[in-house]
Input
Amino acid sequence: MADDRPAQGPRFRWPVEWLGILPFAVFAVLFLILPTMKIVVGAFQTPEGGFTFQNIIELNTDSIRSAYWTSIKLSFVTALLGCAVGFAMAAAVVFGGLPKGIRSPLLTFSGVASNFAGVPLAFAFIATLGPVGLVTVWLRTEFGINLRAMGFNLLSFWGLVITYLFFQIPLMILIITPALDGLKREWREAAAVLGATGVQYWRMVALPILFPSILGTFALLFANAFGAVATAFALTGPQLNIVPIKLFAQIRGDVLGNPNLGYALAFGMIVITAAANFLYIWLRVRSERWLK
Amino acid sequence: MSFLNLSHLEKSFGANRVVKDFNLAVEKGEFISLLGPSGCGKTTVLRMVAGFEVPTSGGIVIDGQDVTGLKANQRNIGMMFQAYALFPNLTVAENVAFGLKVKGVAKDRRDARVAEMLRLIGLPEMGGRYPFQLSGGQQQRVALARALAPSPRVLLLDEPLSALDAKVRVSLRNEIREIQRELGITTIFVTHDQEEALSMSDRVVVMNGGIAEQVGAPFEVYNRPATRFVATFVGTLNIFDGKVTGPETAEVAGVPVRLAEPVAVAQGARLSLALRPEAVHLGRKEGAEVVLPAVIQGVEFLGSIIRVRAEVAGSVVALDTFNRSDAPPPAIGTQAEVSLSGRDLIVLQD
Amino acid sequence: MMRLVAWGTLVLGCLYFLLPLLGMTEFSLKMRRGEYSLDAYRVVFADPRFWETFGYSLALSAATIVVGVVLVVPTAYWVRLRLPQARPFVEFVTLLPLVIPAIVIVFGYIRLYNTSSFLPLTGSAFGTDILLTMGYATLALPYMYRSVDTGLRTIDVGVLTEAAQSLGAGWFTILARIILPNVMVAVLSGAFLTLAIVMGEFTMAALLNRPAFGPYMQLLGANRAYEPPALAVIAFAITWGCMGLMQLVTRFAKHERAKA
Output
């Protein structure tokens, strides 16, 4: 392009402007990109440094496969339920004709609860739904319902789901409430006056408009649950068979017998969260033709 | 029985009575404007007709059917909104087809109707575009097509021009009126812009404080305002010091004049005499009853019209003259004369 | 009907959120047999390890906030002012920590900065502290950047900069005296959120073997019965405090602006 233009003005300028973000770039490279690259490269290396697919192949054992499967299921279920319940609560507050005073406390509380994850959250649920927890004891003494006997265990898959929802739901509320506010009253009224029922309005107008936001939050919630270590660890200790716990144990003391298998395990986590996000971006591009 | 009847409509939000005993009978094919300042209740009346607000009392009858208790989606009404209320996720054609689709009209009939509507609004090629790809004026035309596609009984327009820039506003209002005439659809138009109301309507309803102050043709509302509010809200007005001396006579600045029609007021009641700017003439006009000395205070050149402010008998009067290329506007501070006649006087009662 | 459904949804949701909070509070008061007491809290507060780890995490939070502000404010400012073409790249990087799990990042740290590497940060306690701070700054990056960038959007960066330059201000002065005060609310919001994140963080501190509050809570949880819920109550109070302060600065700023 520069060829057919006569040489006028400065011929070449060092991109000094880019120096302005040099500190940020250095930080990002050192503490975000290089460590990630190290994992990715390590996943394809022998302990001696040679190239191999062996680590990836070794992931294909019953124990690791089931760990991934449990993790994916856990993340998917908590993201799905988190989105559904969070959406319902946000919609109740925005459209349900509830007093205006409810909204601000709910959003503040959501901010708190979405950050109240990790170790203390596990304690709270143990004190509530654990063997001698508040709800467990209350149900047993007042109604004779024995959760244990009914097969409920806080340390099981569904126990984890219930616990994870405590930070997943509020995150959805925080993100989707502004999106719900963005639905103009005129759209609903225009639909109504054109003869559409409430259901038709939601199916043909509101949900398609909200779809990208919901999908984005779903991807975020999925990654959020997939990488969570502390809650599960404090709840169940190192024996629970989900990927982050397995990786945690591996980093602490090489339980897999192959140091580079840890890289492969971590690489698998990146692949899955990245895949979830690419899926999101792809669907978003498809569903957002109507946006600039 | 008229086509659309609003009888004794009342609407209160809490203790706030927004619409008070509102009555209106609209003939089939008529174009009616609700004109008034913001907060006068005009939009609330429209929203009650649309079915978005439930009247506190009173009834709405369309074509012999009482629709007061019906939901918005059962009324078969078309509506255009102030802001761009097109569905952003649907194309122009899908927007226009929306009302037909929810009614379950078959696809081929739907497509034919959409093509017809897009031709009507002059955008036949735009069916595949999304709303964000259109200008504001084009979006509002599509909104009109969307409202008309299901062949509604009544068309409601809620300040559809107020978000557009001046040029588009004028051309679109002519277009809306033309389409309305062509289809013969009964229309209620809400606006706070008197020029829009006067230029488009068969009849204008001037509203204030939840009450219809006057209902009449634009010519009538402008020239024979029923109340002081209507007179001052519609158009510019010069209030004169004067008094009514008999049923058909008055005095302006001590000069006796003859009124156009008899006023029925008790002798000695507090009255004001008013004149439109175009009824006051600069210079000595043939046949004028009163000629008064004046001092020019300001000149606004508006193009075809020159608005002059002049001090006359102690008060400032606005008067309009037509622009003429051979007569430059008067200079500020010069002495002049203005003339006026009693038949142009508007008598305002309190 | 609609309102009934809305109320039902909300009440059920709130019940789900309140029960665990109630549960942990009630449990934390039950240390003494047969009556409610604050014994668990007394024991926790009497534990020197509690104060050590708490202080350590607090200090690290402060360091993280400083690093975050120094890193994010100039970058976000520069991108808005001179490098809009770098925006996609910078935004992508700031979003990465939401996609790459913390445990993967810290795993990379351990292998990359071990004693035999080009930057042997894990070789000393101080080096590890720096590494942990950087790790926390990474975790907080998405929130900090978003917050500051939103704050910058509300002021006219270009005009402010030119006005300051015409009065003879240098880049440091512009950033410290003009830009930072104008986005103070956003910075403080980001800072309190960072504080909340760092105080409860477990994974990075545990794997880097540093005596932070998160690993301390976990350790206590594995060995004791009544102290953990007391710690949970304390942690919840900290989180609530951070969010409350966040709201407070935002509201205060709105108030200030309304007065002006």
